[in-house]
Amino acid sequence: xxxxxxxxxxxxxxxxxxxxxGNLSNVEAFPTGWAANLDGSDMVFVYNSAEVFKITTSGxxxxxxxxxxxxxx
Length: 73
Hints:
The protein is mainly beta. It has one helix spanning 5-12; strands at residues 34-39, 42-47, 50-55, 61-63.
């Protein structure tokens, strides 16, 4: 029987509703060149092996370049 996407998602979440860092190693949710890693408890986003930005557990966003608000993508 094939494993469904719902089953794969359910396997990421523990009994407390949290996603364990060890469960993220098989997640392929990012486009080519992008990855997310943990730095302690902070989430670090990497593009082509360079750290681009970090979201800290306190909610701070730390970026390697400028941040544009109200821009058009």
